[in-house]
Description:
The protein is an all-alpha fold. It has one domain. 74% of the residues lie in helices and 0% in strands. It is built from twelve helices and no strands. The chain has helices at 3-19, 25-40, 43-62, 77-103, 107-131, 139-152, 156-167, 169-174, 186-194, 198-202, 209-234, 239-243. The longest helix is centred in the middle third of the chain and has 27 residues, at 77-103. The chain is globular.
Amino acid sequence: MTSHEEQAYKELHIWQQKMLKKPSITDRLSKNIQGKINNLIPDKIHKAITLAIENMVKAVLFGSKFTTNKALSDTSLHLREAYVKKKIEFYQKTATVEGAVTGAGGILTGLADFPILIGIKIKLLFAIAALYGHDVKDYKERLYILYIFQLAFSSQQRRNEVYQIIVNWQGYSNSLPYDVGEFDWRIFQQEYRDYIDLAKMAQLIPVIGAAVGAIANYKLIAILGETAMNCYRMRKVSPLKITNR
Length: 245
């Protein structure tokens, strides 16, 4: 085992413990605050956000827009993750600029940020999947990407549930229908819709929107990148083995 693999496994173990934490009082309080902020946003904006999420899920499952990445084969974990980190940095810069521009205009342009940012996030996940050697043309790999997306942006309670699917992916994926049309994609829309980051909602506020948008987007891409790296690390090493190290 190389020094990079040792470090990667240590990081994975720490991340796994975080995924398994029980919801705290702070988690429940944040959810309540989030609900109050949601109530201040006009209903037509909520509907537009929901539609953007629905279209994203459909595009991932049924479209070819995100399937141009070729799986990287016969490469060390060290080199794969060097490429992955560069991708994350690139998309962080892209999302930061996009968040600042759309956040500067308040509610109308801030609203436009949601579908744009979702697209940036999904493109990053497809790129990371390919760099870890997975064929994103396989619809089950696309579902895995959606679970990563959900794991990164869910309440702690839902995160506990999604993590169990991720950690037992081999068995779970074997039970999935062969026809992607039979899969109920709506749960992804509902879960992500119920968990929109507080900072992203604050981005809709005039004056502070630009700064909030830039910072929030940078952090959200970082969270997504970390989540994706550890989810794909789990498929290269037994989680039980790591837990017992």
